[in-house]
Structure formats: C-alpha cells, structure tokens
Design goal:
With about 425 residues, the chain is an alpha/beta fold. Helix content is about 35%, strand content about 20%. It contains 15 helices and 15 strands. The protein has helices spanning about 90-95, 100-105, 110-120, 120-140, 155-170, 195-210, 230-240, 255-265, 275-285, 300-305, 315-320, 340-350, 355-360, 365-370, 400; strands at about 5-15, 35-40, 45-50, 60-65, 70, 75-80, 140-145, 175-180, 215-220, 245-250, 270, 295-300, 325, 385-390, 410. It has an eight-stranded parallel β-sheet with strand order 6-7-8-9-10-11-12-13. Strands 1, 2, 3, 4, 5, 14 and 15 form a seven-stranded mixed β-sheet that branches. The protein starts with a strand and ends in a 5-residue tail after the last strand. The chain binds N-(iminomethyl)-L-glutamic acid (NIG) and fe (iii) ion. Fe (iii) ion binds near residues 78, 80, 248, 329 and 331.
Length: about 425
C-alpha cells in the first residue's frame, strides 16, 4: 500500500458525490469546495478528504500545500494530437488575409496534414504525440481524447489508431480514441463520396471495431466536408458497431445536424461556434432524462481565437439549462495548443463564463464527454487521484485571470507526480 497525504490546503475544489456524472445549466455556477482541507491518496485513488483538523497523522508521503488549491486535473475531451509536421506556413497565409476555407481550397488544411501523416512512420508519430501529452500534462491535463482523421485512407487511419493505442499503453494519462475517418474527402474521392463512405463504413469500421481500436466515432459535418445526410449515415452505422458519436458541428455553418446528433444519442456535439434556437431546442430534449443519455455541448475557444471565428455562445447554452464542456481541439490547423489554462481564460474573457463554470466544464463535464466520469473529473472517494496542485494563489479566479501563465505547480496522475 502506498499513501500520500496532502494537507494544509487552502481549498479543495470540485468535491462531488459519485452519483453526480456532469453538471448542467445553473448547477455549473457552483463548485463545491472544502476550505482548509486535506486529501489522502491510497494506491493511486482518492481515499478520503475533509477538514485539515481531521487529517490522518501518518502517510508514506506528506505534502504540505499551504496557500495552494487542489482541484481535479483537466479532462481534454477533443483533440487531434497525432499529427505530422506543423502548418505554420498556413498561419503565415492567414496573417496575410486568407481564411481557413480559402487555405483548404488551395490544398492546405486537413489534406495537407493527411499527406504528411501518410509519409511519416508510426514511431515518429508516437514520439511527437508523447511529447505533446507531456506538455499538456504540465498544464494540468490528465485525460485526453484523441481523434484519427489525418490518414484518410485505409492504412493511414489504421496507423493513427494504432499510434493512439500505443499512447494508451505508454502514457499514464487516460486516453480515449475516436475514429474520424470522415474528416475530409481525400482528393481521389472528391467526386465519389459513396466510394469513400463505403471504405469508411464497410472496410475500415468493422476492422477497427474488431481490433478494439476506437472508443467513439466522429464526423466533420460542414459545407464542403460531410453533409447532414452523410453524417446521419455514419452515426447510424457507428451505433450499429457500438460506437457513440462525438461530432464536429456548426463550426462555420448551421446545417441542422445538431438535431440529428441528439436523435442518434451522440455523446457530444463539438464546436458550436454558431447555434440556432432549433439546435438549443433539440438539445434540451434530453434534459430530465437519465444523465447517461445526455449530449454534451463542447466549446473549443482555442479554435475561435486562432481562426478568428465566433466564440461558442456559452451563455445561451448554459442559460438554457444545458451542460457545456471545454476542450483544446489541439491540432495543427485550427488550434495548435494543448493548454487548458488558456482555454479556460478564453472562455472567461470571450464567452462570459465564470471561474466555477470553466472549472466544471474542464473537469467533470470534460470527463463525461469522453466517457470517464466514473473515474475522473471530480474529488470523489474512489476516483483516480488525478489532481492539480496550484502554486500559492489568492483565489481560483487568478487561474483564468492570469492568461498565458501556468499557475499549476504539480500534477498528480494516478497518485504519481
Ligand atoms: O476541429 N474542423 C475540423 N477539424 C479540426 C481542424 C483540423 C485541421 O485543420 O487540421 C477542428 O478544427
Ligand atoms: Fe476538432
């Protein structure tokens, strides 16, 4: 048995009972906390916590956390961190005035990353993704969802998913894999959508499921990418294979896919830089149902910053009683950063979310939208000891306030530093 006692904490934030799987609407404003607290870790799990005066006297290791806060580590539920090279040339094009869509139309964008990925070995992809995970951990992240979608052919997609499986084995972070073969139509299928859909759904999907390579399925539903009808078909087929969906929707255009995603019981709808009243209405249909049927709204403010597109209207979503998660979208084209602290700052500054709301969105709601809410996302007895210890700070609000700084002093993953 190995025990670690953290004591003299200024505050222990995000304390929840095990039956709270996520927080919606007005509940997001509350972040239950214990002032002057202790927390005991045993064998990598949260064993107990409470007021400092009730702390046990002995443990194998004792950490004095005077003046510091402890909170659940971030759960980043939407990333594309397996990629080759970078796209700073497109960044330069953007500075010179081109839009994301114009860059894509010139052969940049996702197809550019796909070309490079197919020229890169599995080992190189693994090494660079491991480095990204290490950096993300230093910002306080303990769980990461990772998508395929830069292969766009049989071998490339399988290669990406195998790399993600290796990341699961090699990294201490909790990792979930999402099959995003429907990220863009490769050039050879530009005029043969049916051919590509057949490759995805009849050749790749059965093989991927057979080998246990994916936890979820995703589609980039957007003009010039995948239509609402195509999205529906992909989600239906994914469901037949037992994969719940996490879907890219409403990034640049409202096509009406949110309703389809809710009807297909998607786990999350992500981006939502634009959202209609009909979308909100469709999402509200699940409020009141058992929480395992919820579709989480996921905002990706790093993408809004980088592409200079609207920020997801979080107030509209939360004030309608809906749940919201925050994630980085870490990818080479639209959000080249895995910094959840910056994401939280952007959500406060540009989406008018409060400190409590962003912390709930980046911890428990993030955990929910990658299916790990029973083991991560809150300070709950029996959950994994995946924790952030802050530097000595005056309040939690100084975290999002200090945009660009990293006030995370230590990150504990499964009880280890
Ligand atoms: O979430 N929108 C689609 N996919 C990514 C961008 C991927 C890329 O540009 O490489 C996103 O923003
Ligand atoms: Fe994305």
């Amino acid at each position: 048995m190995n025990s670690i006692l953290i004591r003299n904490l200024k505050s222990l934030a995000g304390v929840r009972e095990a039956d709270i799987k996520m927080v919606c609407g007005a509940e997001m404003k509350t972040l239950p906390s214990i002032e002057n607290a202790f927390l005991l870790i045993e064998n990598g799990l949260i064993k107990s916590f409470g007021k400092n005066e009730d702390a046990p006297e002995r443990a194998d290791e004792i950490i004095n956390a005077e003046g510091k806060f402890v909170l659940p580590a971030w759960c980043d539920s939407h990333t594309h961190i397996v990629y080759a090279g970078s796209r700073e040339n497109e960044f330069a094009d953007k500075i010179n005035g081109l839009t994301y869509e114009e860059i894509a139309a010139r052969g940049g964008g996702i197809l550019n990353s796909a070309k490079r990925l197919n020229e890169t070995t599995e080992e190189e992809l693994l090494d660079s993704a491991l480095q990204r995970l290490e950096e993300m951990k230093s910002f306080g992240t303990c769980a990461v969802e990772i998508k395929s979608g830069y292969g766009l052919n049989y071998e490339g997609e399988m290669k990406m998913l195998r790399v993600i499986r290796k990341l699961k084995e090699k990294s201490a972070l909790t990792i979930k894999a999402t099959f995003l073969g429907a990220h863009a139509y490769p050039l050879e299928f530009k005029n043969n959508h049916e051919g590509y859909l057949k490759l995805l759904l009849e050749e790749l999907l059965p093989k991927i499921v057979d080998e246990g390579l994916a936890d979820f399925i995703d589609v980039f539903c957007e003009e010039n990418y995948f239509s609402v009808e195509e999205t529906k078909r992909i989600l239906e087929t994914g469901a037949k294979f037992g994969l719940r969906a996490k879907v890219h929707v409403n990034q640049f255009n409202i096509l009406g896919a949110v309703k389809v995603c809710v009807e297909q019981n998607a786990l999350s709808v992500d981006h939502l830089e634009l959202i209609s009243d009909e979308d909100i209405f469709a999402l509200k249909a699940v409020v009141g149902l058992p929480t395992n049927n919820f579709t989480m709204c996921t905002a990706l403010p790093g993408c809004s910053l980088f592409l200079k597109i609207p920020y997801t209207p979080a107030r509209k979503i939360i004030d309608a009683g809906l749940p919201l998660a925050l994630a980085t979208d870490f990818n080479p084209g639209s959000a080249p950063s895995g910094n959840m602290n910056l994401v939280n700052s952007l959500a406060c500054i540009n989406m008018n979310m409060t400190t409590e709301e962003v912390i709930n969105a980046s911890t428990l709601n993030g955990a929910y939208s990658m299916g790990v809410e029973n083991e991560l996302g809150s300070i709950t007895i029996g959950k994994k000891a995946n924790l952030i210890i802050t530097k000595p700070v005056s309040s939690l609000t100084i975290l999002p306030y200090s945009f660009g700084s990293n006030l995370v002093e230590r990150v504990i993953v499964n009880g280890n530093f």
